[in-house]
Amino acid sequence: MPEGREASGDGAAAPGRPDAERLARAALTRIVEPGDERAGRWLRTHGPAEVLRHLTAYDGSPQTLPGMTAARLAGYRMRAAVADPEGDLEAAARAGGRFVVPGDPEWPGQLDDLGDARPVGLWIRGAADLRLWALRSVAVVGARACTPYGAHMAATLGAGLAERGWVVVSGAAFGVDGAAHRGALAAGGATVAVLACGVDVPYPRGHAELIGRIAREGLLVGELPPGTHPTRSRFILRNRVIAALTRGTVVVEAEYRSGSLVTARGAQRLGRFTMGVPGPATSSLSAGVHELLRGEGVLVTDAAEVAELVGEIGDLAPVRRGPVLPRDLLGPVAAAVLDALPRGGTARVRDVARSAGTSADEALARLYELHSLGFVEREGDTWRSASAPRPNDDTRRGGT
C-alpha cells in the first residue's frame, strides 16, 4: 500500500456525496488539529471511519490506538461530542464550498509529501479545480507589517506571475499576502488563499472584501470546518500546506522570527524551490530574508526570475546588463589608441603609438577611424580626444 493512502480506500465517492468515509473525515477536521501527525498515523493504519469510531465509542483501553492516553482521548471526545459532519457539509454548500479528501479527483497529490501531517481533508470555496491550479502555482508570502517597498514587490510579483500563467498562493493576511493576491487579481490571473480558519470566515476582518473576491474569482482553501476561527498555532500549521501545495515559495520581507520563514523552511524540507527578495541590509524586515538567502534560498527580483527557477525548460529570464555605450563597440586596438590620448591637450601619432603599444601606421589608421566616429579631433600634426577640454575653454567660459 503506497505511503499516505489508507487501507479503507476512502475518497471513491464524489465530493458532493457524503459517504461514511467522507463524513468521518469531515468530523475529524473538527476533532483533530491540523498537522496532527499522531492522528495521521491512525488514519494511515486504520482509515477515517475506524479512527472516528475509536474516538467516539471508547472501550476503556487507552491502547486502542497507538499513543492514545486517557487525557488525550478526553480532549478528542469533548470535540467529537459537538461534531456534526452533515451540518458542516451543508454549511459549506450554502457558502458555495465543498469538502475534498484524499482520493478525490480534485485532491492535489503533492500534499501527500507531508506524510502523516497531510490534511485530513480540505474545505474549498471557488469554482476552479484545486489540483489543476496547484500544478502550476507559486507561494508569495512575507511580513504582515511590511514596508511600502515590500507591498510593491509583492504586488508586482503577483501580477507578473499571473501574467505568465502561474497561480499565486498566499495566506490572505495583511501586508505581503494581501498585496500578492491583489497583484494577481489586478492582472486578471488566478490566486489561492490558504486560510487558518473556516472558508466561510472572513479573517482578517479588514480583508473581508478581498477574501470575498478571491472566493468568486479564485479559491479559498482551509483544513478547518465552517465557522472555525483561527488561533496562533493554526497560522503556523497552515504554512505547511502553502509550502506543499506549490512549486516554490518566495519570501518578501520577513524578520528573523517571521512565520513566512516557517513556510520557506517547510518548502526546503519538501524539496521545493525557496526564493527571497532582497531588501536594505539595515532593515529588520529583510533580515530573515537575507538569512534565508545565505543558505539555500535563491535571490529573485521579479516574476521572470521566479518563473525561470520553478518553470519548465525554456522559461528563461532575460539577460540583464547595463546600457551598451558607443565606446563598448570599439575594437581592442582602437580602444587602446583612444585611451592613449591625454585627458587634456594633444599628442603626436608616435607618442600615441608608443602608449598604445602599436605601430605608428596602425595608430594613425585607428585615429582616422576614431575621427570618423566622433571620438577624436585632429589639430595639425597632433590629435586630441573629442571629450577633452580645449586649452581656451576656461577662458571663454570665465570671460576675463
Topology:
Elements: H1 20-31, H2 37-46, H3 48-56, H4 70-80, H5 85-94, E1 97-100, E2 122-125, H6 130-134, E3 137-142, H7 148-163, E4 167-170, H8 176-186, E5 191-195, H9 208-217, E6 219-222, H10 232-245, E7 248-252, H11 259-269, E8 273-277, H12 284-294, E9 298-299, H13 303-310, H14 332-340, E10 347-348, H15 349-356, H16 360-372, E11 376-379, E12 382-385, H17 393-398
Parallel strand pairs: 3-4, 3-7, 4-5, 5-6, 7-8, 8-9
Antiparallel strand pairs: 1-2, 2-6, 10-12, 11-12
- Percent helix range: 40-55%
How many discrete domains? 3
Q: Write down the oligomeric state.
A: single chain
> Could you spell the SSE succession in H and E letters?
HHHHHEEHEHEHEHEHEHEHEHHEHHEEH
Give the number of DSSP strands.
12
Distance between the termini: 97 Å
